[in-house]
Amino acid sequence: MICSAWGKYPKIDCRRLTFDRESKLEEIIHNEKELIPYGNGRSYGDSALSEVILCTRAHDCFLDFDESTGVLRVESGVLLSEIVEHFVPRGWFLRVTPGTKLISVGGAIAGDVHGKNHHIEGCFSECVQSFRLMLANGEVLTCTKEGTPELWRATCGGMGLTGVILDATISLKRIKSRNIQQSTIKTKNLEETFEAFERYGKSPYSVAWIDCLAKGDEIGRCLLMTGDFADDGELDYRLKPQKSIPFDFPSFALNNWSVKAFNWLYYNRVGERVSQQKVDIDSFFYPLDAIGEWNRIYGKGGFTQYQFILPKESSYKGLREILSLIAESGKGSFLAVLKLYGEANDNWLSFPMRGYSLALDFKIEKGLFELLERLDAIVAEYGGRIYLSKDARVSKELFECGYPQIETFREFRREHAMDRKFNSLQSRRVEI
Ligand SMILES: Cc1cc2nc3c(=O)[nH]c(=O)nc-3n(C[C@H](O)[C@H](O)[C@H](O)COP(=O)(O)OP(=O)(O)OC[C@H]3O[C@@H](n4cnc5c(N)ncnc54)[C@H](O)[C@@H]3O)c2cc1C
User: Fold this and answer.
1) In angstroms, what is the span from residue 339 Cα to ligand 1's centroid?
2) Relative to the CA of 159, which ligand 1 atom is closest?
3) What does the alpha-carbon distance between residue 235 and residue 258 come to, in Å, rounded to a whole number?
4) Which amino acid residue places its CA nearest to atom 21 of ligand 1?
5) What is the pLDDT along the chain (432 residues), one digit of tens a residue?
6) Which of 74, 95, 100 has most ligand 1 atoms within 8 Å of CB, for mutation?
7) Atom of ligand 1 nearest to the CA of 79
8) For the purposes of burial, counting CB atoms within 10 Å of the CB of 188, is it exposed (0-12), middle (13-18) or buried (19 or more)?
9) CB 206 within 8 A of CB 197
10) Are strands 71-75 and 62-66 parallel, antiparallel or unpaired?
11) For residues 265 and 287, what is the distance between their CA atoms, to the nearest angstrom?
12) In 3D, which of 26, 27, 49, 23 has the Cα closest to residue 36?
């Protein structure tokens, strides 16, 4: 069957395998020449794609919960949305959550995902106490940061290339409300945007939407949203039904003009320089989840998300150059998310580092990859890196210069015969 991840690019003819018990999984790993685990397909590119994919989504049981500490053990196919749905009413929330709750716990560990609070809480692996992993030889190991340090560093952020995560023990955080006290700060240009990030740096959550088509004096103008959980005791929470996009949009629907119009309206919907709102968990953390299959607006050819991070010292200069190039190219993105990150952890392929990251969605069309290669060159020049969870096209050379621990990772995979069993289109492309 034809398979793709969230960006619908690339597509591959693949066999989907499932397992009902660990002995069956061991048999699959033994018999198949090569495979890659597949969670909920919310990575954008080709990290979860190969000719054989191993689907973990059916493994969705909650195994144990300690109400006094918030420590939860779940199977790896459990979605973050299922955790949110069951635990918010009991006064618990995820310590780290990305901008969609529709990802599996296995995918969250394999991508070492991060949220709007990286500067405070770090990556998802920071809230993981342990996980069980089936290796290339069928052996199952319980991994912890202290007990199995190398396997931990290779697997958290390792994009499924070390084995299959079976279950995980994670810690949740206490909350007193399903609501967030949000501040929205409107800035006029990149300089003000950076100042605002610094000024609100102590806020537990922060994220900015950038108008990526703004030019000249307005380059880098944004709406910065910061916030923290309210204290009002309202914990009633139910998953809202999604409205879905019923068909793939025709490719002409998304163009420079529609993005420009959207950006203008979105930026100008806020009048004041600083305003306060009380919003719920879904509006604050997961606005994109309100619309099911929104990836269809990019048409049948799909789209790619370009997400890079630059070290803090070079972020301002690098971002200015990149935003100017994008505005000049006229290839706009509705979604252009800027985040400030805290210190990197020591996982070998984790994406975050101290600095600023920008994520942009681009429709796959003529001229796009040439533009992205020009952006790659700027990212490399300023010492940055590309996020593997979003990527579908980066070259081996650019990938390598962003991830200095890559040789250690490769060596570790070779040593444990992982490189002969777990591979994706992405791992083949960048040779990891
Ligand atoms: C709308 C949207 C917003 C997003 N926002 C963010 C964000 O703010 N921050 C962020 O960091 N990411 C973000 N992402 C990316 C997403 O969080 C990651 O790509 C995540 O890894 C997807 O999880 P998944 O369960 O869908 O995994 P998949 O997409 O199926 O797989 C992703 C990777 O995990 C591996 N994997 C999956 N399950 C297992 C397992 N059981 N054992 C071993 N390996 C496994 C796969 O092999 C693959 O390499 C966003 C994605 C979307 C669509």
Assistant:
1) 18
2) 49
3) 39
4) 107
5) 999 999 999 999 999 999 999 999 999 999 999 999 999 999 999 999 999 999 999 999 999 999 999 999 999 999 999 999 999 999 999 999 999 999 999 999 999 999 999 999 999 999 999 999 999 999 999 999 999 999 999 999 999 999 999 999 999 999 999 999 999 999 999 999 999 999 999 999 999 999 998 989 999 999 999 999 999 999 999 988 887 777 777 766 677 777 788 888 888 888 899 999 999 999 999 999 999 999 998 999 999 999 999 999 999 999 999 999 998 998 878 889 999 999 999 999 999 999 999 999 999 999 999 999 999 999 999 999 999 999 999 999 999 999 999 999 999 999 999 999 999 999 999 999
6) 100
7) 25
8) middle
9) yes
10) antiparallel
11) 17
12) 49
**Model pTM greater than 0.90?**
yes
Residue 161's contacts (CB-CB under 8 Å, 6 or more residues apart) are: 36, 154, 413, 418, 419, 422, 423, 424, 427, 432
Residues 6+ apart with CB under 8 A from 125: 109, 112, 145, 152, 156, 157, 345, 347, 350
Q: Which residues are near ligand 1 (CB < 6 Å)?
A: 5-6, 36-43, 47-48, 56, 76, 98-100, 103-104, 106-107, 110-111, 113-115, 159-160, 164-165, 288, 389, 424
N-term to C-term CA, the chain: 26
H or E element at residue 228: strand 222-229
Exposed/middle/buried for residue 134 (C-beta within 10 Å: 0-12, 13-18, 19+): buried
Residue 341 sits at φ, ψ, to 5 deg, of -115, 155
- The whole-angstrom separation of Cα 309 and Cα 332 is 19
**Closest ligand 1 atom, CA of 124?**
11
The domains of the chain, with CATH numbers, are 57-175 (3.30.465.10), 179-394 (3.30.70.2520)
Q: Per the structure block, which two tokens stand in for 334?
A: 């509705």
Q: Are strands 355-363 and 12-13 parallel, antiparallel or unpaired?
A: unpaired
CB atoms within 10 A of CB 120: 16
The atom of ligand 1 lying closest to the CA of 289 is: 1
- List the residue whose alpha carbon is closest to atom 19 of ligand 1: 43
